[in-house]
Amino acid sequence: MAGIIPRWEWRVFGTGFGAAEDALAASTPGPVEETDELYLLSAAGSNVKVRYDLMDIKLLREVDADGLERWEPVLKAGFPLPAAEVVRVFDALGVPVPPMTRDAYTLDQLLAELVEPTHAVWMVRVHKRRRRYALANCMAEVAELEVDGRVARTISVESEDPSAVRAAVRSLGLDSQVNTGYPRGLWVRMDDRPQRHAVIDVGTNSVKFHIGERDPGEGWRAIVDRAELTRLGEGLGDQGVIAAEPLKRTVAAIAAMVEEARSQGVRAIAAVGTAGLRMARNREEVIAAIRDRTGLTVEVISGEEEGRLAYLAVQAGLGVTEGSMVVFDTGGGSSQFTFGQGRQVQERFSVNVGAVRYTELYGLTGAVGPEVVDDALAAIAADLSRLDGRPRPDRLVGMGGAVTNMTAVKLELASYDPDRVQGAVLDRAELDRQIELYRSRDAEARRGIVGLQPKRAEVILAGASIVRTVMDKLGQQSLTVSDRGLRHGLLVHRFGT
Hints:
There is one protein chain. The protein starts with 6 loop residues before the first strand and ends with a helix. By secondary structure, the protein is an alpha+beta fold. Helix 12 packs across helix 17 and helix 13 crosses helix 17.
């Protein structure tokens, strides 16, 4: 089509977009436009619709690394539609052209004689009420949709310049959402599939990834739940900065997770960073590197917020509603503690007590003498002095890689089983047995221990020592294990129960 320039587009479906809509409303809006449109949907995913009595086709020509889509208009033609143009319709839909008996087709003839008999094209009637805005050299649009009696909203941003689209989406605070064009968005809206959302937890030692599927009345079901050990905080204690090689590993892991989330049809991705990013002097450069590669902005949260989300995950996963409870999550760079009574959180704090630091300080990657472990335990105890003198809680719950790996070792799980780990119990005798097991072996020998994730072999001795010290400080003979961690609490917090 002469004079038509393809545009890069970004769109998200939902029920409301809060601050993003407020930001657009503060600018000068265009007039409200209402249209009735007919979309022809197929597995090909092309944008084929009838609007203003015109057959309107746009083809997806390119998807960039951030998920932005470049759509090219290829046809706008009135009815009756010549047979040659009918062929183009079916080519766009990726459906074989049925035998044609006419030189041209009205819309009713096209639908009744050619489209409906294929059983491969879904006809969806949409009423749109939309308003456009100018936003940072882009065109933005907020639309209300009525789709076969169902109501939805969309926000879209488009421009010939993809960098302008990315900047505009980021300015609206919507860059964690997954770009969803009209064909896919309408298909998902119509087929009644449960909604999927993803969360990514960028930790000092590992990146955790979770996709949850929410079915109304049934709660969340895990579709994907895994961790990739990238050692982002490797060497962080020496220079206070995240080095190039750990960053490269971490960015690659996050990029693969984002790609997997999009392939799984998630509606949005929430990503948070914890202790390593909080401590790093170059955290803004790290966040920018992740965003440049994946299109995802990582929000660095406080230790207190980590604790709150962990408590939320434990309550949802273990159903704890009464008595006093302490939930702790020890990771590579820090440990978070949340004190609560029943459903009420009373205190939250984070301390810079993490497995990576003590591993590096005391050389715990290899086999060491008992005196070295004693020195590490003494240092950990001093750094956990904030726990001193507190009343003994009714329940102590541990989470995080050290706790779940120790549980897998106890249960001798050759393949990790979250359902067996969830709610399991670790007592002091088991902790002491495992500390001795790790102390007497180097990292390579530890990798042969059934249940231990091989990439955690270097830091597991320090992690076990932290867990043992927490139990001592809080006067506990045992702890309950929660496989549901920060990522699960974040899922509930951001996307609902």
